[in-house]
Amino acid sequence: xxxxxxxxxxxxxxxxxxxxxxxxxxxxxxxxxxxxxxxxxxxxxxxxxxxxxxxxxxxxxxxxxxxxxxxxxxxxxxxxxxxxxxxxxxxxxxxxxxxxxxxxxxxxxxxxxxxxxxxxxxxxxxxxxxxxxxxxxxxxxxxxxxxxxxxxxxxxxxxxxxxxxxxxxxxxxxxxxxxxxxxxx
Length: 185
Description:
7 strands; about 20% strand; alpha/beta; Rossmann fold; seven-stranded mixed beta sheet; 6 helices; about 180 residues; globular
């Protein structure tokens, strides 16, 4: 069994903001595959599907970004999913808009959602699909991550979301992090 979790903040106020990149990537995957969230439990919206012969939970925590780990750990513990079978989709300010990087494990890089997941899973050994949102130039970090992409940026993000869907399919098909890093980084 695999868990694919997109990170973001719940509520219309945060819809389409840079910090909701993980939600947007997962929403794109759901739409592309005619899937919907059909469960509200474990402090998240989720669905369990059979994809390429594998049981997969697609999850959007509804705990707000800084407490994402609570929801993810509840799902992982209930379904007995190992950390290496979890893929987290997150925004990353240290990369250009739309750039993708896969990581197999590691520190949080200052990302509060990832800090929460490390804390609640008790390990850094879970996979991350990072999508660049760039560091702000003339505004505060909080203002930057809570604003939407402009039209040029959105085009780059749409391409990143399409690539993310391919990464999700490869991950679900059993491709390990090293394969994903070699193919997509």
